[in-house]
């Protein structure tokens, strides 16, 4: 069983894949889009992709590909705690450039501005790619923001621990697959979700209010609503909606009512939500 993840080794996505697939053969890819394309082309049976961070919000590369191009859905979600470390070849070296994934750079930006205001921030395709790059260039005054596991993977030192802006920092990861996800011994199920991408009629006033009322009238709990550009014209959007622990018959009737209102609906996933067994987070 092959499982694609955003690599290289030492990334948060890598560790979610390790926790989720105890017997899987993990295959790293250089970008989120490449991970999804590997699954789409049947190079792997499952894929793990980040979808949203509690500090920085949605991972747009994931959401946009799933909406505009993909014909597959999420089959499970894993909510994973994120602790960002500042890593370098030596603890006491000067730091002029800090590399990481855009989400990690944003999560650690406040710390960097306070302690390394002169450092330039540079984006990389993943946190572990940044850590590997730093390890390959010990002569340069550079550092990476990456998981603690990347320290041992690439022989780096911790300059500063847990530099993320908030202690309660979590990322939602979606699992893609054709077969059901059974979970692993290190995960526990905490809820179920439906994720929809909804495009509303542009010529009807109050269409968003009407769409949301289909859920409110049935007392269905929405945990997320977010707009993203349709990429057709300025001011045109689709809406991402997450419905948690919905009664199936009530959800089905809400879905039908949305269609009767002229909404175009794409299901991004119907899935169980998991957290680590040692994590106290219950309501996600």
What would you say this structure looks like, in words?
This protein is of the alpha/beta class. It has nine helices and 15 strands. The protein has helices spanning 12-20, 32-40, 60-68, 102-107, 109-115, 127-136, 149-154, 207-216, 248-260; strands at residues 2-6, 25-29, 46-53, 57-58, 74-81, 85-88, 97-100, 120-123, 142-146, 157-160, 170-177, 187-199, 221-229, 237-244, 264-276. Strands 1, 2, 3, 4, 5, 11, 12, 13, 14 and 15 form a ten-stranded mixed beta sheet that branches. Strands 8-7-9-6-10 form a five-stranded mixed beta sheet. The model has no long low-confidence stretch (mean pLDDT 91).
Mean pLDDT: 91
Helix percentage: 25-40%
Strand content: 35-45%
Elements, N to C (H/E):
EHEHEEHEEEHHEHEHEEEHEEHE
Overall outline: globular
Number of helices: 9
**Structural class determined from secondary elements:** alpha/beta
Low-confidence stretches: none
Largest sheet features: 10 strands, mixed
- Report the radius of gyration as a whole number of Å: 20 Å
Tally the beta strands.
15
- Determine the N-to-C terminus distance: 29 Å
């Amino acid at each position: 069983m092959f499982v694609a993840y955003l690599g290289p080794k030492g990334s948060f996505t890598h560790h979610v894949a390790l926790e989720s697939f105890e017997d899987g053969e993990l295959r790293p890819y250089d970008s989120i889009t490449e991970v999804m394309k590997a699954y789409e082309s049947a190079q792997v049976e499952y894929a793990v992709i980040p979808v949203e961070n509690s500090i920085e919000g949605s991972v747009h590369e994931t959401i946009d590909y799933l909406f505009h191009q993909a014909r597959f859905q999420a089959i499970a979600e894993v909510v994973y705690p994120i602790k960002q470390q500042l890593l370098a070849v030596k603890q006491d070296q000067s730091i002029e450039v800090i590399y990481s994934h855009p989400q990690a750079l944003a999560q650690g930006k406040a710390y960097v501005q306070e302690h390394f205001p002169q450092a330039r921030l540079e984006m990389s395709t993943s946190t572990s790619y940044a850590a590997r790059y730093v390890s390959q260039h010990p002569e340069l005054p550079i550092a990476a923001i990456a998981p603690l596991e990347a320290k041992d993977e690439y022989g780096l030192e911790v300059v500063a621990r847990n530099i993320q802006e908030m202690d309660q920092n979590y990322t939602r990861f979606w699992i893609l697959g054709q077969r059901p996800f059974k979970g692993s011994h290190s995960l526990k199920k905490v809820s179920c979700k439906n994720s929809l991408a909804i495009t509303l009629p542009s010529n009807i006033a109050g269409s968003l209010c009407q769409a949301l009322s289909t859920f409110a009238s049935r007392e269905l709990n929405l945990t997320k609503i977010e707009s993203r550009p349709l990429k057709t014209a300025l001011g045109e959007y689709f809406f991402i909606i997450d419905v948690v622990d919905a009664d199936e018959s009530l959800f089905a009737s809400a879905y039908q009512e949305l269609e009767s209102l002229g909404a175009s609906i794409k299901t991004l996933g119907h899935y169980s939500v998991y957290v680590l067994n040692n994590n106290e987070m219950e309501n996600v």
